[in-house]
Every structure is written in structure tokens, then in C-alpha cells.
Amino acid sequence: MILKDIRWRIWRRAQIWRHSRRDAELYNHLVGSLFTSQSSLNSANILGMAVAAAGYLLTRDKLYLLLAAAMLATGIGRTSVYHSFVRHRDKLVTRADGAYYDRLFFIYSALFTTAFGLTCYALIRHPASTGTHAVAAGAAVGYAMGVVARNAGRPHIVVTQVMLTICPMIVGYALMRSTYGNVAVLLLIGTMLATVFVTFSLQQNVIAVYNADKATRHLAMFDKLTGLMNRHTFSEQVSQVIATDPQKKFAILYLDLDRFKEINDTMGHTAGDAVIVEVSRRLRAVTRAGDLIARFGGDEFLIKLGCTEIVEIEHIVRRIAATLAQPVSVEGKVFAPTASIGAAVFPDNGLLAGDIIKKADIALYEAKRAGGRTYRIFAPQMESDIHAQRTLRNEVQLAVDRHEFVLHYQPIYELASKKVVAVEALLRWNHPTRGLLPPGAFIPVSEETMAIVEIGEQILEAACQIALKLPDDIAVAVNLSPVQFNQPELLIGAVRSALQRTGLAARRLHLEITETLLLANTPSTHKTLDILAGMGTKLVLDDFGTGYSSLSYIQDFPFSTIKIDKKFTDSLYVNTASSAIIKAITQIAKDLSLEIVVEGIETAEQESFVRMLGPTQGQGYLFSRPLPEAELLLKLSKPASDARRMSLAS
């Protein structure tokens, strides 16, 4: 049973050794373990020559001087191999590179150990004395243990050295033909076998440490989820490509999945991870063998393409987009991933890897600004646009802190009586150098940076303050951004706070919501609107007809008013469908006890036509342009009761 266990252990160690020879990287690592410590190598050389010198001093036999010279020569040879390996360590790539030093070290070590073993044999065969035997036995066993500790990464070298050291001593003791000699033989055989097993065990430890280090390095260089290289590794690879051939052109694509956050938010990160893994698989399938792919983090990917012609880049981008858009099923739900892509070219757009990636990122930003599901190739103008956007972001935040945002108010009136029933608060930016800016100049940036949340809090209270200065039957309408609904607690708190701080009746605060917010129809959105309506405020569906209009919005959400978009008013005389739509919506609203406001009335003819179709309220430049606070109060303040009838002439 013991012999069977020993055979199994030897066979297992042999399998590990053969496997290490197949893995060039592991093989070179094990060879490299022979060259990690010059001090231990020097110690072995000194020990061997010291034993030979001791033998000469004890016996005055010149044989020991010859053996010392042999060990000096082979020791120098072994040291030279060590220094050569250290100089060329970084150039060792193939297994053949490591095998060269493996063979040299083995040869010099075998020659050195042969001389050392003969020295120990000679000491034993000298007329018996305590001194010679102590030197031989102590030096041999100590040398063998040192060899095991130092060279365990290459077991065949250890086994050879141990046998060349101890076997001559075994022969020497066996020739004594005495009980003492026989006991010594048994002890030395046991020592030799023990060193062999210890060597293979230590090699296993070396391999385990190597594998753990390799796994750690892999985690540091590659994305754990997809197996793609990470940002740092990608940048290094691209830098290496540039350093190797600075004249070779290539392109980098920066890809970002559209609306990926919705998958994580609605289905959880496990589903999101599954989509990321599938996207990475598709990217591997659609790119060529020489292309590099990396996951940049989250839902972003980088691809290095060998092509640089715009036509070819566009072809590949379209192929990637088409591949990604194929439906993917996750947890029983089907998604069709889409992406925004930015592209930049080396060396046209930069000379360093970081520069090219940055330019591709800028192009990606432009693709996202265009609404996503598209691509952009970097152009110098984009960089100046990005700088302008960055400057605008900073200015918007400063404007929030300085309260530079102001409200203008456009009246909403009854078409028949011209009586003002509400005023819509329209946001303007009183910029210190550019003057009064319209919403389109800053709202997108405000939403992108979330500054709109704080702006919304400011204008809610300002609008409520103005309403208090108007007749009690005139309401104030405030537009809410979809971004504000991402933080429902803040929005609800801001509305409640504005009403409490000003004392305005909730029924006089109208909150205008665009259809964009309602597309997702999430439980959070529904709950937030229910709470706002429950507070007594009136909810207005703004710009009805501009997007994915659905009559289900009117049924599903607690709206009290529908505002028909200006585009229908503009096309009343050129598109018969516009008048039919206005008439139909008006009838539905009347059946549901909802108010209808038609926007964009700019001529008397339009006003007359709209009245004929059924709506009772309107808004537009025919009645009044948006007015600054002072002008509005001059015409509609409580004392000026006769000012509530306004006309174009006013």
C-alpha cells in the first residue's frame, strides 16, 4: 500500500512537470526561479570549495585542491549564466528561450555537484576520523537541503544534484562493510528520498503561487465579467502598437449602450450583466482577429480597428450596430440593445493612445447629444464644442448659486371672453455677459448635470410668490423636467415646501408634464403624480401630440388639463388632419371633464378656427407674449381688475 502511494505521488508530480513544459510562460517562470538569488548561489560555491579546503587541511592530499579548482571553475560558469539570464530576462518569450538557460544551469550544476560529491566521498574513504566524517556528512546533507530550497522549481536539477552529492557517500559507507556504515547508508537513502518528495511538494507551491499571481494579474488587466481587456490594458496595448509602428494608421471606436441604466433599474444588475456579456460576445464575433476590444467600464466598450478610411469605418460601425440590435432574451424579457459610437483616427486625431481615446469619447458625446443610436467621427470642431459645453456647465452651476434664473409669464386665456385664467412661468437665464437666454440654451445642460433639480426648487417658490400678487382666480403653471422625477422625494418636497412657505392654495399651482416622462410609465412616476395631484395641485399634459402621444395617458394619469401643441395650430389651414385631431381630443376631454388649451395662437384667423373646433382656452402671441414679472403685475395685479381683458393691442 505504501509503495502504491509512493508510485501515485511520483506519477502525479511527473504530470505536473510535463504540464509545466507545455506552458511556455509557466516553464520560463520555473526556470526563472533558478535565478532569483545570487547570494545563495555564491554560498553554495563557497561551501563546496570550503569543504575541499578542509579536506586538504585534514589530510594534506592534493586531490582536494584539484576538486576545489573544479568547483571554482564550474561555480564561475554557473555565476556567468546567472548574470546572462538577469540581463536577458525581459526578452524571454518562447519556451526555447528559457530552455537555453535551463540546460546551461543544469550542466554547470551537475559538474559542480560531481566535484562536490567526490570531495565528500574522498573524505569518507580517508582513514576513519571524526573530523573527516563530520565535514563530509554535514556538508553533504546541508548542501542537499540548500539545493532543495533553492532549485525546487526545476525538480530534475534537484534530483540530479542530490544524487550526485549523496550517492558517492552511500557507496563510500557501503564499502566500510560495518554496522556503522550500513546505518549511514540507510540514513542517506532516507535523506535522498525525502529530498525528492520535498522537492516536488515545493514545486507545487511554486506553481500555486505562480497561478495565484497570474490570476491576480489577469484581474488587474482584464474585465472579470466579460474577459475583455480593461481600460488600462487597452491603453497599454494601443501605446505598444504606436511605439512598434508609429506610421501605421488605425481607428478607435468608443461605444456606449443606450438606456442601459433602465435595464439595471427595472430588472436588476444580474440581468444587466447578462446583457453586457452578450454584447461582448457579439463584439468579438463582428470584429476581426487583429482588432482589440476592451470593456471600459459599465456599459462602455473600446475597439481598435486596423482600418482608417472613413467609408470602411462607417461600414464596420453600421455592422456593429446591426449586430447589437438583434434581440436578446434575459429572464424571459426581450431587449434589442442599441449603441452610440464615437470614432477617432491615429495619427490624424492625436499621437498618443490617451489622445485618440479622448477624441473618440468626444465623438461619442456628440452621438449621444444627437439622441443616441447613431455614430459620429471626430472632427476638430467637436473639441471646441465640448469646451463650450464644459464652460456652460460651470456657468449654469454658478447661475444657480447666484439666482440668475428669472421667470417670464405668458397668459392662458378663455377664447370667448379673453379672460386670463392662468399664466405659464417660462424660464429665462439673465446671463451676466450674454443677456437674456431662452431655455433651449441651458435646459439640456441643466438636465444633464442635474442642476435642473435646484433650479426647479427656486422657480417653484418664485412662481408661487407671483401668484399671490395676482387675482385669486388666476393660476400659475410651472413646467417640470423629467429629470426631476428621478428624485421624486425632492420634487414632492419642493412642491410642498413652496406651497407651505408662500401660503398659495394648491389648486392655483398647475404642474405641466411632457409626454417624454410618461413613456416609461414606471410605478415611481405614477406614484409621484398621484401624490402631487393628491396635494391639490393641477396636473397638465403639455405639448400633447409632439411625441408618442397616447390617449391612455389621459386615462392612466390624474391630469386636469391637456395642452395641444403649437404644431397643430400652425398646420390648421394646410393639414385637415390637424383640425380633426383637435376636434376629437376636445370632445374626449369634454367627456372626461378636462380642460383643453391650444398653444401657438398667433393670428385672429387661427383663434377663430380653434374656437369653432371646440377648445375653450388658448395661449399664444396673439393674446400676449411672455411678460417679465413687472409687466405682468402691471397688467394683472389684484387692483387692476379691468386689466384682465387683454388684446393684441395691449
Automatic annotation (TrEMBL):
Residues 389-640 form the EAL domain. Residues 248-380 form the GGDEF domain. Keywords: Membrane, Transmembrane, Transmembrane helix. Coiled coil: none annotated. The chain crosses the membrane at residues 65-85, 105-124, 131-149, 155-176, 183-202. CDD domains: EAL (cd01948), GGDEF (cd01949). InterPro entries: Biofilm_reg_signaling, EAL_dom, EAL_sf, GGDEF_dom, Nucleotide_cyclase, Rev_trsase/Diguanyl_cyclase. The keyword Transmembrane helix applies. The keyword Transmembrane applies. PANTHER family: BIOFILM ARCHITECTURE MAINTENANCE PROTEIN MBAA, DIGUANYLATE CYCLASE DGCP. NCBIfam families: GGDEF. This is Diguanylate cyclase (GGDEF)-like protein.
